[in-house]
Amino acid sequence: METVEHCEVCGGTDFSSLMKARDRLHGIEGEFQLVKCRNCGLVFINPRPDQEEIKRFYPSEYGPHAERPGPSHAHRQSPLRRRIYSLFYEYPPRDQRNPVVFRVLLLPVKWVIARNVIPFRGTGKILDIGSGSGSFLASMKELGWDPYGIDISPEAVERAQSLGVTMFHGEVQDVPFPEGFFDVITLRAVLEHVHHPVETLCEVHRILKDRGVVYVVVPNIASLNFRIFGRFWYALEAPRHLYAFSPDVMRFLAKKTGFEVLSARFRSSTLGLRASLQYWYDDRRGFRGESPFKSSTVVRSAGKIWRTAMDVLRMGDTVEYTLTKDTSIRFEGSPGRVKDSVTSRSRANF
Ligand SMILES: [Zn+2]
Fold this sequence. Notes:
Blueprint: E1 15-21, E2 32-37, E3 43-45, H1 63-66, H2 79-88, H3 99-113, E4 125-129, H4 135-142, E5 146-151, H5 154-162, E6 166-169, E7 182-188, H6 197-207, E8 208-219, H7 224-229, E9 243-244, H8 247-256, E10 259-266, H9 271-285, H10 297-312, E11 318-325
Parallel strand pairs: 4-5, 4-7, 5-6, 7-8
Antiparallel strand pairs: 1-2, 2-3, 3-9, 8-11, 10-11
Zinc ion (ZN) binds at residues 7, 9-10, 12, 37, 39-40, 42.
C-alpha cells in the first residue's frame, strides 16, 4: 500500500476521513479508507494499493476486460442510421439529397434512436483509453473512424486487435503518440481507475489536435444515490475506483490540465438503484448471494424511472464531460515512460 501525501488535483495535504469501503463487486478481502481533500473536495482512497498491488483486484472475470466481441453493433449500419449520422453528425459521405427535407423529417427519429452519437471530426483519428476488448472501437471503425485503443489488460488488447483495432498495452503515458495526433479521445469509466489522473489528462492534452474533443465519463460522488446509499453506493467500487469526482472537482481538474468544459451531461444507468440496493441487502444478510434486486424486473423498471429523474435534476450517478483544448497551454510529452510490454510500433509508424 502507498500513502498519498498530496492531493492529486490541488496539491493540498489536509484530508478528512469520509468512510471505509470494500470490494463489494468481487468480494476480494480488504478494507479501504476514503478521504476527502479539505481544500478542493476530491475524494480518494488513502492509503491505496500501488500499481502492482491493484492488479489482484482486477480478476479475469472483471466485466470490461472480459467483455466478448459481439456482432460488432451491426444495427448501427442500417441505411436510416447512416443517413441520420451523415445529416446531423457530419459523418462521411455527406448526404447531399434534399438535406433540408430529410433534416426536418428525421429530427424526431434522431432524438429517439441516435441521441448520444460522437460527431465525426477531422481525419477521424480516435483513441479510446481503457478500451477493454474493443467493441466500441470496432463499431466506430464501421462508421469510418480510424480507431486506436489502449488497455492495461493483455487479454483485452488481444481481443480488440482481432477486431481490427490498432491496440497498445499499458497506460497512455507509456505510448509515444505524436503531439496533436487525435481528433477525439475518449476516457469512459477510466479516470477514476488510474493512479495519476492529472498526468493522464496532461498527456491527453498533448496528443490531442488543437480543435480536438475529449469525452470523459466518470461516476458522480455528488449524486443523490451516494447521499442515500453511502458506503453501499455501487460506484464507490473500492479499491478499483481510486478517485471519486464531483462536477466541481472535475471542472477544476479540467482547467488545471489545459481543458475547457464544453458540457456536462448526466447519463446514469439503472445500476445506481439496483446494485446499491443489492449491496445494502448483501451487507444485511452477510453474504453475496442470489440477487433479488439486480435481476428483478420491478426494480429494473423503478431504476429506469429513478435514473431519468436524477439525470434531469442533474443529480445522477454518471456524468459525461465534453472537453476542448485550451491551446494557450502546452505540456511536454512523456515518451521516456515507454515500457517493453507496449505493443511495438515506433514513432515513425504513426
Ligand atoms: Zn485537493
